[in-house]
Metalloregulator ArsR/SmtB family transcription factor (Pedobacter flavus), 218 residues
Amino acid sequence: MGITKTEIFSAHENNLATIFKVLGHPARIAILQHILNQKACICNDLVEELGLAQATISQHLKELKNIGLIKGSIEGKSVCYCINSSVWSEIQLKMNQFFSQEFSLNECC
Amino acid sequence: MGITKTEIFSAHENNLATIFKVLGHPARIAILQHILNQKACICNDLVEELGLAQATISQHLKELKNIGLIKGSIEGKSVCYCINSSVWSEIQLKMNQFFSQEFSLNECC
DNA sequence: TTTTATTATCGTAATATTGCGATATAACAA
DNA sequence: TTGTTATATCGCAATATTACGATAATAAAA
């Protein structure tokens, strides 16, 4: 037990859940918000900005990278992270498609 | 360690992350999808529909109830769960407000 | 009342996540 | 080369999540 039974769900359900899961941590929301505010970002900024250790920030950045929401390029000694706008839009669209589904308003409850 | 440091993030960041976290499991996405398709729902249906034990389904329903996304009313022996449309819309709006934030397109990466 | 059906909760095992110190890696600076 | 700075990765401890059997609670049916 303890392991999520992904095999019993559809690819779409798993995909959507994975995206939501990555967004389901305040540090990762805060990182995205910081990048949005700064227009760009360097990891070390985040260590000062948020109150988390460098190793922890790096780990969160990796998860955001895994779903393609951010991308990073090496800029000399540091790495410049920014939003991947095409993936950003795709994710927004996916979420909206899910939430825009019609449902009967004759709520039984 | 192992505990999320919610105290260092804003209420808005924590709130948004909590919503995403609840949505971040394929079983919960599947449950919502089932309710959407059926227009209404009874827990026991889900046990047959999804391949999870009754206790597990009940637990997932509880988490969806915690953020107000679904509500249930007792219908004789069973419980009728359905989407709470006002919370549903609020959540969709919150997600869109986050994803609609402007960001510079002069991506550095 | 007893039985049956439905859902919730408890307890627990397995696994995942979070956070961080220590260390590795890479690139520039002296 | 040696030192410095920035980031990634490893390893581990603490905590959280997932799943489920067992059982409790509730309401209708017999």
